[in-house]
Amino acid sequence: MSVSYSFTSCGPAQKKEASDTPTSGVIKISADESFEPIIQQEIDVFESLYPKAGIVPEYVSEVDAITLLIRDSVRLAVTTRVLTQQEEETLHAKKLYPKTEKIAIDGIALIVNKENTDTLITVNDIEKILTGKITQWKQLYPKSKLGEIQMVFDNANSSTIRYAIDSICKGQKLSDKLRAQKNNNDVIDYVAQVPNAIGVIGASWIGNRSDTTRLSFSERINVMAVSSDDFANNANSYKPYQAYLAMGLYPFTRNVYIISTDPKTGLPSGFTKFVSTDRGQKIILKSGMVPATQVIRIVNVRDNL
User: Which residues form the PBP domain (predicted)?
Assistant: First the structure.
């Protein structure tokens, strides 16, 4: 399957004459669609600080984000994995030497319909749903009348699918009954409308934007609490609150990286440095993810689940 890409930006014509420096010029970047809200905020603030800089993002699946980097269509990609040895060797053959910077820790959230109050689940149960060993809600909750479980992801090439295969199912084949939408917004919309659905989504998409404490989630859906034990209860189950991500109590977490192939200290390096500085890390902090280079204050967020 061939994929074509087009890049657009607000007002790049005014910036094309700027030289390529850490704070000026125009670059194209690719980013895992899971992180669109955060990366777009980073870009907006960076461009407001440096008016001669223009960053043109393409929000795609993680597979496509890395493919664009390998093809040298972009010099910066935001991903949840580092490059493989083969990918690095391909870049080296092009005289490109990638640099990787960890910028955040994200959570993989499990969301259900607002009418569904069965929100405690174990890691083992999720693995069984993903591999087709559990297909009905009553297998999890004997009194449930929701019928068949419909588990939905953002898209077939997403980083959340890869996480499910690699980190949850340890390479086992996923059930052919899993569903893929187009993006994270579509997952939220689907779960909000379908009572028997479970959505798998990046935690930064489900925060309550009006809550500056980052201690609540979107009112459109319910968020499941996950236990690493064989049986889930209120005491051993955790939702993807920022504090639980930072403390390692929530079981489904992943690192977020910027990978740059900037051959000189140009705009890709300047943007990477900005995201890693205090101002860039505060944007990540406000998103609900855990900043990689900034100490955060841990707040007791235990609720009644």
Answer: 18-277
